[in-house]
Design a protein that fits this description.
Layout (H helix, E strand, L loop, with lengths): L1 H12 L14 H6 L3 E2 L6 E2 L8 E3 L1 H4 L8 H4 L6 E4 L8 E4 L10 E2 L1 E5 L2 E2 L6 E2 L10 E8 L3 H4 L6 E7 L8 E9 L3 E12 L2 E12 L8 E15 L2 E15 L6 H6 L14 E18 L2 E17 L3 E21 L4 E23 L13 E27 L2 E18 L8 E20 L2 E12 L3 H5 L15 E14 L3 E19 L10 E22 L2 E17 L28 E10 L4 E10 L2 E2 L4 H4 L11 E2 L2 E14 L2 E10 L7 E4 L8 E3 L4 E9 L1
Parallel strand pairs: 7-11
Antiparallel strand pairs: 1-2, 3-10, 4-5, 6-9, 7-8, 10-11, 12-13, 12-37, 13-14, 14-15, 15-16, 16-17, 17-18, 18-19, 19-20, 20-21, 21-22, 22-23, 23-24, 24-25, 25-26, 26-27, 27-28, 28-29, 29-30, 30-33, 31-32, 33-34, 34-37, 35-36
Length: 717
């Protein structure tokens, strides 16, 4: 509370004679949208003529993040996407149009590209988003729907194309920011940037920590990010990137209904004595070269290496993993035509490798353990698994784009081969290996026509596929080691139609309707005696997803800006074709989903609206409302139908409405300019559920935070 009072005093003590600075929320933001070039399509195209949906998150929206530590803050105004911040930190679950909703850890079927470097491994799995400091992001492009023809299995549900800030215009500059608030939250961020002749640079370092809103939910994280752009000639740009992230997150686990009624803030009884947590330590080295051969040809090369270590503890096992993940991308572009018609062609390839050394030791409880942020846990000398997973993937793609004045056509096709190989080191005399190979061809066709600034229509057909990822293959329901050999890829076909437009500098909108058919969709289950964190996957059959996504930005007055994102989602299983192994009650504590069931964690209605009012050029206030309707929890057909004990299984989770508000002030103290702000999340103190999962044991509920208040101050130099 003392920190909050300190920030209030700063706000009230600012002299009104301080020099005015330009607001981030004047009408030029909508005008600038008209000039945006979309890069996530791998062939640049203007936002106005993009032949498919696209959401652009700019610096104005990013500047209003209360804590700037997690992607749920950054993408709050993007329709079609659902983010569950289950641990009040950076550990989140993300789904786009229902793809990725059942992922236990990380992102599945969603491509993540940071400054041109992919985060996804050869199977398309992105382990987390800890490498990104959201306080240094410049903009985010979000492609919603299957983009496998561009990014393979990692683009099955959509793509997050994240660009961080570059160097400043002056030789030396930067900023320092400090944020503090509820639940012992604190974040310090320092950034240095500048420009000198033919290069610009940026380096940032941040430290974050917090206790979370529940017991055993503490976390801390350190992020270092260095980015240098070299321009040796007018035709060459080379970007060099070094990043390092170190993140620790306690895991309180979900609660069952009885525990929820007793105390919604408690951790699952297993979490504290076993000290359940996840620890990630990762470094990324990247190099990107863009070469303009001539006016008609250019070439881009990307190379990176990502070594990292991971540890996860549970009430059954402590898992240790070390990774080495290199990758290369090459893309050659040809531009032919004139002012009337332009033909752009690209041919490219993605090559990824990953080697994982992993072993598991049996866990033991410490009932006398005193709660603290530490990495100690009791382990026995019982080795449960000791294996090496080697992966490689090759993706070759071709893109054709035609621009004919107001008409734009884009087509792409891609072929992927993903090889997974596992060596079991526990059987040294006759070391067995097993392989799982996935092949897939995917395509996309999209057209748009720009009738005028107020109306551009587009139609898009695309294919997607989600191969079983590293996590899903390695979690074998019949043993602690080996692959789950029963899994096959989920494939989808999607058609969307939409339109977007501008009304001067006052209004921008985009409306998209889609239908997506998926075969061999996934479901989750657990096995007796394998612990809370051991989650397994099977192919459930088919599903259909239908939805409408609406976004608009409206400059109501010169100093009043409104943004709104709404999603209508109708996601259901349509048929069940289950491998018999998943119905064997010897191993599985679940019944596969039945036709007509709603997919879990998919509210029918989602809405986020945010208004920003600039009182003057220095002072602005913002108010937001967040709404989600009820959603289904379980894939288990018996739980869904209410045939199981209602004291343990409650399938439908009621929705919620939250209200948020903030105030910020641009300031100048001597030669230094900056901003101070106060944000309140859930200021009406609503009790709500932040995350549910289809847990066969009934430990499905993770409550959200009460009212939280955060204050920050940022000074530029």
């Amino acid at each position: 509370m003392k920190n909050i009072l300190f920030f209030i005093i700063i706000l009230l003590s600012i002299n009104s004679s301080l020099k005015a600075q330009k607001s981030n929320l004047d009408s030029t933001n909508i005008a600038l949208l008209d000039e945006i070039i979309v890069s996530a399509n791998r062939l640049p195209v203007s936002l106005k003529q993009n032949p498919g949906n696209i959401s652009i998150v700019n610096e104005s929206t990013l500047s209003l993040m209360p804590r700037a530590i997690a992607i749920d803050e950054a993408l709050r105004l993007v329709p079609g996407i659902r983010i569950d911040n289950q641990n009040d930190g950076e550990r989140v679950h993300i789904s786009i149009r229902g793809q990725g909703i059942l992922t236990e850890r990380g992102l599945r079927g969603i491509g993540v590209i940071i400054d041109g470097i992919p985060l996804n491994d050869p199977s398309g799995f992105a382990p987390d988003l800890y490498d990104i400091d959201w306080g240094t992001v410049k903009n985010i492009e979000v492609l919603r729907g299957p983009y496998a023809s561009l990014y393979g299995g990692s683009g099955a549900g959509g793509v997050l194309y994240i660009t961080t800030q570059n160097g400043n215009a002056k030789p030396f500059g930067g900023f320092i920011s400090q944020t503090a608030g509820s639940n012992a939250f604190a974040k310090t961020l320092i950034q240095l940037n500048g420009k000198n002749k033919n290069m610009d640079y940026r380096i940032s370092v941040s430290r974050t920590r917090g206790n979370g809103s529940r017991d055993h939910q503490s976390y801390w994280g350190n992020i270092l990010y260095e980015k240098i752009n070299f321009y040796p000639t007018k035709k060459i740009k080379i970007t060099q990137i070094v990043s390092h992230s170190d993140y620790f997150q306690q895991n309180p686990e979900g609660l069952n209904l009885q525990q929820l009624r007793e105390n919604p803030k408690q951790a699952n009884p297993d979490a504290r004595p076993f000290n359940e947590y996840q620890k990630t330590n990762r470094t990324t080295l990247g190099l990107i070269g863009k070469f303009s051969i001539n006016k008609k040809q250019d070439l881009q090369l990307t190379a990176y290496l990502r070594p990292w270590r991971y540890k996860e503890t549970s009430n059954k096992a402590a898992e240790y993993s070390s990774y080495a993940s290199p990758g290369i991308n090459m893309q050659y572009n040809v531009h032919l035509g004139n002012s009337k018609i332009m033909n752009n062609l690209s041919i490219g390839g993605d090559f990824k490798w990953q080697n994982i050394n992993m072993f598991k030791l049996k866990s033991a409880a410490n009932p006398n353990r005193k709660e603290s942020i530490d990495e100690t846990n009791l382990e026995t000398d019982t080795l449960l698994a000791n294996q090496i997973v080697s992966q490689n993937s090759v993706g070759v793609y071709f893109i054709y784009q035609m621009e004919m004045r107001k008409f734009n056509f884009t087509g792409s096709i891609r072929y992927d081969a993903i090889n997974n190989r596992l060596t079991d080191k526990m059987m040294a005399l006759n070391t067995p290996t097993m392989s799982k190979i996935f092949y897939q061809t995917s395509a996309r066709l999209g057209i748009s026509y720009n009738f005028n600034d107020a109306f551009t229509g587009f139609v898009n057909w695309s294919q997607g596929y989600i191969p079983p990822s590293t996590e899903e293959l390695a979690n074998n329901p019949v043993a602690y080691y080996g692959f789950n050999t029963h899994l096959v890829s989920a494939t989808s076909n999607s058609t969307e139609i939409g339109f977007r437009g501008f009304a001067g500098n006052k209004f921008y909108y985009e409306i998209t309707g889609f239908v997506m058919y998926t075969e061999n969709d996934f479901f989750r289950f657990k096995q007796r005696g394998r612990g809370n964190q051991e989650v397994f996957y099977g192919n459930a059959g088919n599903s259909v997803r239908k939805g409408i996504e609406i976004y608009f930005m409206y400059q109501i007055l010169k100093n009043l800006n409104l943004q709104l994102a709404y999603t209508y989602a109708n996601y259901k299983y349509t048929s069940a074709t289950i491998d018999p192994v998943y119905t064997d009650t010897t191993y599985v504590l679940t019944t596969p989903p039945a036709p007509g069931q709603w997919l879990p964690n998919s509210p029918k209605h989602q809405l986020y609206a945010e208004a920003v009012y600039s009182i003057n050029k220095n002072l602005k206030v913002n108010f937001a409302v967040e709404y989600q309707s009820k959603w289904a929890i379980y894939t288990d057909a018996n739980a869904y139908a209410g045939k199981l004990n209602p004291l343990t299984y409650q399938n439908w989770q009621k929705g919620f409405t939250l209200f948020h508000a903030g105030i910020s002030y641009l300031l100048k103290i001597g030669k230094f300019k900056g901003e101070c702000s106060i944000f309140t999340r859930n200021f009406t103190n609503v009790e709500y559920m932040a995350f549910t999962e289809p847990d066969p044991d009934g430990n499905s509920y993770q409550p959200g935070s009460d009212r939280e208040i955060f204050g920050s101050i940022k000074m530029n130099f």
